[in-house]
Every structure is written in structure tokens, then in C-alpha cells.
Amino acid sequence: MTAVGMERWQNRVAVVTGASSGIGATLTRQLVAAGVIVVALARRVPRLEELREQLPDDQRSRLHIRQCDVTSVESVESAFDWIETELGGADILINNAGKLEGGQLVTMSLDTMQQILQTNVMGVVSCTQRVFQSLRKRKTPGHVVIMNSIVGHYLFNPLPGSLQELNIYPATKHALTAITELLRQEFRDFKTHIKVTSISPGLVDTEMVPQAYKRLPLLQPEDVANAIMYALATPPHVQVHELTLKPMGEPF
């Protein structure tokens, strides 16, 4: 049964980056179940194939899988060229791919920080540009969702007795907060009907969260996926610009 408010997205095309695990995989299942055609993008194709195998038989045809590294312009261009040719373009973009590596800003590898920047910021920009171009050309409504974080709004202190390990990550998420507002203004000024939503969760029980934090209250991937589905299901005149989720009892 289609979720209330998702009817208009039935048989439309959604692209989910970072779809091989966690929030991306969970959201992919929910979108497919709602009748959306989903292109799942990730570097780990075997994980995407496992995801497809886990779907009910009558839903598998709605899931397309493509290898894509959002840090590579060539990889992004190839993926979206395929989407344009085979499916006619994307209507929904879920910018979910992200990278976090523990370490201190003053000592960690610059190469590692470049990878985090390229994944968390430029990957969002390059994917969003392609979807914007397609939606504008087709003159059709769309929705861009950006996976932000509470650290895209403020910084919390590390656990007692430990060093701060977030390094460049909060800076990339603060950039996404600014990018969300920039996109809202640009989509408006280009006279489009494209919504943009920033989703800012606290700690989520995914592969990316350091083990030391897993003893704290955590959101589940389903919680965040449900929030995204809520934003997508809002009426055409309603734009959920920023949505923050925290687990009950979070100490930050």
C-alpha cells in the first residue's frame, strides 16, 4: 500500500546515493515499497545486489543499481547519463553518501580530509547539479534531500577523557546547511518547483558511527528514513526546509 502523500511519486524516479547500507539502504526499501522507481548508487555493488535480493519479488523491477563514487566527477556523470538515457531523468535526489574518519584536524592526513570534503560537499553539489538540469529541462516538480547532521548546526564536546575526533566533518556539514539555503533561493529564482530539505539527525546506529559512541542513545536508520518519507509526502505547496531528529536522552 502506498504511503499517504506519496501517490504523486509513484513510477517517478528517485536517486539514492550511499545506498549500500544504513539510512540509504533502508530508505531505498521504503521508496520502492511506495511505488517509486529507485536508482541506488554506491561504490559497493555486491551490497546493492544483496539489497535487491532482499526485496519482495514484485518490487525488484523497480530497483536499479549502479556503481558510483560521488567524489569522481566522471563517475557521477556516467551514472546520471545512464539515468537520463534509460529512465528519462531523476525526480527525487537523496544526497545520502557521506564519509567520517576519526582524527584531529591538526594531525590527520590532508588526503583523508580531502576525501571527506569531496564526499560530503562536492558530491552533493555534482549530483544536485545533474538533477537540477534534468528537472529544469523537463519543467517538472522535484525534491532534493540533503543528509546533514546536528553537527552541521553546532559542535558538541567529546566524551570525557577523549580527544575531539570529528575534525573536518562538522565543517562539511555546516557547508551543507548553507548549501541547503542557497539551493532554496536558486530553485526559487530559477522559477522551478523543486523542493530542498536538509535532514539533520543526531547519532544514528550505522557503520559510520564510532564504536565508543554506540553506548549512547541512538536513532535507528528507519527513524531517519521515515523522516525523509514524511518530507517527500508533504503537499506541493509545503517545503520542509530543515528537519532535526535526536534520540531521547542524547547527552549533547
TrEMBL record:
InterPro entries: NAD(P)-bd_dom_sf (IPR036291), SDR_fam (IPR002347). Pfam families: adh_short (PF00106). Keywords: Oxidoreductase. The keyword Oxidoreductase applies. It comes from the Eukaryota. The keyword Oxidoreductase applies. Gene3D superfamilies: NAD(P)-binding Rossmann-like Domain (3.40.50.720). Belongs to the short-chain dehydrogenases/reductases (SDR) family. This is Farnesol dehydrogenase-like. It comes from Drosophila arizonae (Fruit fly). The lineage of its organism: Eukaryota, Metazoa, Ecdysozoa, Arthropoda, Hexapoda. The gene is LOC108618823.
